[in-house]
Please model this.
Amino acid sequence: MGGDGQALSNKRRILEKSRAFLTPEELRKGDEEPSDAVQSRKQLKILQWTHCALSLEPLETPVVFDLRGRLYSKKSVLDSIMEKQSPSKQGDESKSADIKITKLSDVCEVSNVEDGVGGKVSIRCPLTGYDAAAGVRDFVGFWGCGHVCWAASNRSGMERSTVDEPPSATSGERSPECPCCGEVSFAVPLVLKSESDEVKQFRRLRPLQRAFRKRKRSDQ
Model:
């Protein structure tokens, strides 16, 4: 795995330096026109919706998401977990994208994913038919059932919650029921703008995830 790991690291650096992977902050510092910045952000969202955040390869079914709103091919997550459990990797403080994923319960499998044209993964809101990979709308994933829906299609009409909101104001607590199936859990805004937003969201939703696990165990 050593050679493969180095190749993956090199590929990640190349992609992160590409124009499509510029952060909003970097775009604002650049000399592009505003329309260019908007287009770059759209391109980034499309890549995030169609590529595994761990392997950087096109998504393959089954697809999962984590509390930070990142999407992964489940196979890549399983491979990563197994690699971390190997004696040579134990205690390794890796800075890779999956550092918060140590077991399968750290991710939720998307239930409304399909194999689209040309074998590409397609995730559409079951209520509106909107394609997440279009890169123009915000989507949330419901942790209990795995449904991914357009954020504004929630029954309460909520938009994507901001990462700075306190726990009492999170989308998960305001509207805990999935608008597709009615299962009670919490909503995870997907494909955020920056890594700092992802960290804030992870810290905010982690208590909800623990409470959800506890409730599921008590119901069994």
Remarks:
- The chain has one domain: 2-219.
- The mean pLDDT is 79.
- The chain is about 35% helix and 10% strand.
- The radius of gyration is 17 Å.
